[in-house]
Amino acid sequence: xxxxxxxxxxxxxxxxxxxxxxxxxxxxxxxxxxxxxxxxxxxxxxxxxxxxxxxxxxxxxxxxxxxxxxxxxxxxxxxxxxxxxxxxxxxxxxxxxxxxxxxxxxxxxxxxxxxxxxxxxxxxxxxxxxxxxxxxxxxxxxxxxxxxxxxxxxxxxxxxxxxxxxxxxxxxxxxxxxxxxxxxxxxxxxxxxxxxxxxxxxxxxxxxxxxxxxxxxxxxxxxxxxxxxxxxxxxxxxxxxxxxxxxxxxxxxxxxxxxxxxxxxxxxxxxxxxxxxxxxxxxxxxxxxxxxxxxxxxxxxx
Length: 302
Fold this sequence. Notes:
Blueprint: H1 3-9, H2 13-17, E1 23-28, E2 31-32, H3 47-62, E3 66-71, H4 81-91, E4 94-96, E5 98-99, H5 112-116, H6 119-128, E6 138-142, H7 150-166, E7 170-173, H8 177-189, E8 197-200, H9 208-216, E9 220-223, H10 231-243, E10 250-252, E11 259-260, H11 274-277, H12 285-300
Parallel strand pairs: 1-3, 2-11, 3-4, 5-6, 6-7, 7-8, 8-9, 9-10
Helix pairs in contact: 3-4, 6-7, 7-8
């Protein structure tokens, strides 16, 4: 059987197999507010309205065998742990939230204190952060283009310190392989294992060799944003890593959702089930198990 036949042969059986083992989505959103760090406030939305909007999408996801979702909305971009706790209790899906600060988008979502404080001071905040009944399960940050801006480097350094002290993985919005490699240097220099680094949005880098270089270093390469238009390229990304025997360093998700704060009715809320109803049908049962169960648990814990 050719490799293409292997990818395509599972058909609808791949959807059925997701019910034989629990699955995890590593990069999705429930609510996001793009207003900016200097203007974001909890009174810009009605938590109960967001709950009512998001709940049916999560309930539909639960039917496909998903037990856990990494809700990747950072602080100062709409993170609301209490909302996630309410939705988790109502739907039975674990919604894991994060600590950290997101530096991408030219630092629009970086609050003033984070511009002034040192990496050590920021890390202290993140290490001790906890709300009512919740604790962060990963560190979310983001950078701009390579070479990294000084502020980006500081945020990554703070994330590395936090990871070293807590064991939490670092999920970083990163669109280029060179920026991913720069971050790996910062992380390793802080005595943190490269296995704690997750290169988010790696599919935006078209160079498969850079995917492999980062994966070979021990980091995670995350191909999220999976949808009907992108599916073919995402499969190519996975095929290239598998050919190099690096599929065990890959993560997949959709970067889907979400309630858009500031838009009427929350705007267009995209659901979370395409990866189950379509994308997994293009993978073998074993490939799906590795990507939807084995690797997420290894990257984020259980």
